[in-house]
Request: fold
Amino acid sequence: MLDELAIDVAQEKSRHKEELSDVRLQHEKRCWACGRYEKELRGLHEDKNRTEEEIRSQLRDEKARTRELESLQPTVEKLQAQIQSMEGTKGMVRAQTQGSGEETAEKSALEHQEQVQKLQLEQTAQLQGKMAEMEAQQRATEKSFQEVLKVQAETVLDLQDRLKGTQIDDFQLMLDC
Reply:
């Protein structure tokens, strides 16, 4: 019985040691996980701080731009007023110049028509001169062609006469023989 009790105590002690080592192992795992989570948490915290700083910087830039735009607002309003004033003046000037513009356009149209008529007359005269020149060249070419044909016909007749004369001479020679 003592042996059994010693065996039970030893088994209980062994089981207790195993449970204790399992608990220690789980504790170490949790500690490592906590360390990893703490590291991730620190990284996220640093990212958050960086992002906050960037947002603050952008906000400062936007505020500076807003102030600049607000300072330019009176200038914009003055320029818009000047533009409206100039548009009114432009309308008046356009009305005044429209009448004189129509007169100038009519005058220009008349001058243009006169120039066109003058150019047409000049071109007609030039064309007539060139036509006369081309007709003279054509007559000279035809005359030269007729002379060439005449010379050619004379040459052919002369050759025919010589040929006949040679044939007659040959025929007489044959008769003489």
User: Anything to note?
Assistant: The first helix runs from residue 2 to 176.
